[in-house]
Amino acid sequence: MSNPTPRVLVTAAAEATIDVLRDEHGPLMFHQSGGCCDGSSPMCFPAGEFRVSTNDVWLGNIHGCDFFMSAAQFEYWKHTQLTVDVTKGRGASFSLEIPLGVRFLIRSRMFTKEEEENLTPIYDGEEYLTRPNAVG
């Protein structure tokens, strides 16, 4: 069996921003709630600062950061591969990158049928926290 298809990826530009943030804040995590305005953008927090639960889904790890999404939002996005990117501009959220004059955003594409048959497993937030090496 081949390696599973990742549900979430990250661009080189976003990785560079993550590196800057990690140097200042230590280990990081991402969460995308799916609310209005900037709630639909991925938000970056110090690892463990945003408390995840069964209402959240762990989608994977990007550049050393766990990525979670609200379960309700995941229902809309479960057929797409997400790519975390960064762009100039100031978001209206509590995400760590905002003071840098940039904001994270999501680019997406639909999985192929073959990719959907071999996706990275997901875990709800509480299941994830019981896994070895989980940060929370």
TrEMBL record:
<protein>
    <submittedName>
        <fullName>UDP-glucose 4-epimerase</fullName>
    </submittedName>
</protein>
<dbReference type="InterPro" id="IPR008497">
    <property type="entry name" value="DUF779"/>
</dbReference>
<dbReference type="Pfam" id="PF05610">
    <property type="entry name" value="DUF779"/>
</dbReference>
